[in-house]
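Dear Dr. L.,

I hope this message finds you well. Following up on our conversation about the binding site, I have prepared a predicted three-dimensional model of the protein together with magnesium ion. For your records, I am including the exact sequence and ligand specification that went into the calculation, followed by the structure tokens. Please feel free to forward this to your student if that is useful.
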Amino acid sequence: MAFKVPRGTQDILPENTPKWQKIESILRELARVYRYKEIRTPIFEHTELFQRSVGDTTDIVQKEMYTFEDRGGRSLTLRPEGTASTVRAYVEHKMYGAPDQPIKLSYMGPMFRYERQQAGRYRQFVQFGVEAIGSADPAIDAEVIAFAMDIYQTVGLKDLKLMINSLGDKETRDTHRTALINHFKPHIHEFCDDCKNRLEKNPLRILDCKVDREHPLMQTAPKLTDYLTPTSREYFEQVKKYLEILGIEYEVDPNLVRGLDYYTHTAFEIMSTAEGFGAITTLCGGGRYNGLVEEIGGPDVPGIGFALSIERLLLALEAEGVELELDDALDVYVIALGDEAKLKAVELISSFRLKGISADMDYLMRKMKAQMKSADRLQAKFVVIIGETELEEGVVVVKQMETGNQEKVEINEIVNYLKQQLSID
Ligand code: ATP
Ligand code: MG
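The resulting structure of the complex is given below.
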């Protein structure tokens, strides 16, 4: 019987890992310069954490969680997203008491959602996300958005669109909620079962429905932006002002509500506008969640963050035809001719590696010609050849593959020679 990966998951093969590693290193480097320190939380959490923080009426909690009972009878869930765990850790470790606020955290790792498989939608996918907890300054909303945009620009994407909206504060949400119920109630029988359910529980979610997206009542629905309290409106204006100062273009989308229950004020999404990206164009989603920390047992502390998946970032790169600059070329391939030379070759590649020079050799006892072919395929920058005569003379032949130039170098000098050629300190 032949086994296959479970539906919605994938193997990332050696020919693709350099791309992943490159993106991961860009993300880590940006987290360093924006100063969002990495946090690593468990892959599974108590189910209730997600029910509480993501929200009972969301798609994630209603249909997408991998929930299981462990041998001790506890209900656990593979994390479907990173904010809940991050905020749980923030509360558990009382980070709100640390002298330097806000607490700025980032995470990267696999998330799990039981979704219908389609392009850009996996059941296991890797999210990178950040959270800034402990500040209600609109400047940090702009920082978080700028960070997200910076990621896509750094990898070389151009066809991007930033959509923003404000969900306002509690008062905004309450008056808007009543208006939404009045708007949808007379026609709710025309909507899907989920929406019928959402009407009383959380009518805002109706605007986020994937099934009834085209229903005419969606376009005429009361807009949150019309219900913003003066404070919320002023907050939104400030965020926009900071974005303008940062030179970040945006569009206001009054129907942007995002899938999670705990958002307040700023909500944003970054979309790919590349042709041929396919139906799902959202690359990144984020927003402010001023009620969440308290909701899961912490003090009343505001927060904001975003999450993106590397899978969709890769799709966007593909759609725009952007090639990442990858450096997985081999520094030096050593070819030994004869048994004595082989002993020396083993010694040499070890001394290269000790100095940070990537080195490889033949382990199949193939002829010189086949070994040269390997060196080509591996994109070796240099080939070092040792034969019997070279051994006697105490030299090796070094061939620079790009130019074809060949020269003899003293065997005792070869490490220094290569270090210099490869600009390795
Ligand atoms: P969608 O509307 O596409 O279902 P969402 O609201 O469920 O998105 P979030 O929970 O905000 O998405 O997740 C943030 C980001 O994570 C998304 O913008 C997307 O880049 C990525 N993402 C979400 N679900 C998946 C998935 N199943 N496979 C790959 N990436 C995903
Ligand atoms: Mg989703």
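In brief: The CA atoms of residues 331 and 357 lie 6 Å apart.

With kind regards,
A. P.
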